[in-house]
Here is the input.
Amino acid sequence: MNKVPIAQPIIGEEERAAVLKVLGSGNLVQGDKVREFEEAFAAYCGTEYAVAVSSGSVALYLALLAHGVGPGTEVITTPFSFISTATAIMHCGATPRFVDIERTTFTLDPEKVEEAITPNTRAILPVDLYGHPARLDELQELCDQYGLSLIEDACQAHSSIYKGKKIGSLATTCFSFYGSKNMTTAGEGGMVTTDDDILAYFIRQWRQHGMAQGLVGFNYRMTEIQAAIGCEQLKKLDAMNARRRVNASLLTEELGDLVVCPTERENCTHAWYLYTIRTDRRDEIKKALNEAGIDARVYYPRPIYDEPCCTDYKMDCPVTEMLCKQVLSLPVHPAVTEEDIDRMVEVIRCTLE
Ligand SMILES: *Cc1c(COP(=O)(O)O)cnc(C)c1O
Here is the structure.
């Protein structure tokens, strides 16, 4: 029985050839390839600048710093995300302020965001969870009204679309190229996109020590090998995501009457990083799928404020708490076959019968 991992990098001949070329080129770090990858990524997103860094977590950290997030400030974000959404805020010396989400798309609820704004709030950090865009227009309106910055965690949302615009072009946006994501750069990597030349300038300085400008930067560079892989992966991104979309719609066709299936909000295109169902019998289904070789997983089993490093920022977010007990993510990556999907559906159907 073949195993179906929850995520899997799809690396072809093009990536291999590009890596070998870099190895023979005489330069291994932050050179022409990184510049080429940045330019291609900015063009893809429809934004002025893209700055490549060493990871998605670093992208978040530097984007927050560039927007003046520091000690004494607060950043409003979701408790239903990967931990580094919050730890990036904490590394800036700022306070994460967790606000509850919408149950249909698992993204930040703008109505609850407004209630959480204080004189210390500096930024709003929504997450496009599982690949679905947050309510960016409503959040941008709040930012305009209260003088805040919108910084988007799109680490799971390469190529998703919001009201006709590519994610990456609507706010200062952070991407990850970790090996599990919709595209990778050798397993690790990150990018910040922005239309603001000053923000781009500061992030470029900080990623490479920044001493000449009197800044205390550090080493957050991307290597030429990573960028070479990234350039090839970007060319394949639309085709890979089309596969994800087909897999997601097959699952919805088959599972619609058994569990609550994920949906796309009007005017949004999902990137289908993960296909996340909701059911009260989550634990049984997960066990049965895992026994059948399907690596279904729970993202996320508890709110970030219940993680040991974040208990100082404890909040009460009932929608998040409920979803933590119900969600189960199924693999939909491009290597998932129709046969794999039939097997998932069969296992879920049998478990619920
Ligand atoms: C993957 C991920 C990150 C972190 O990216 P890394 O490249 O692993 O540092 C941040 N936020 C979200 C929502 C992610 O999924």
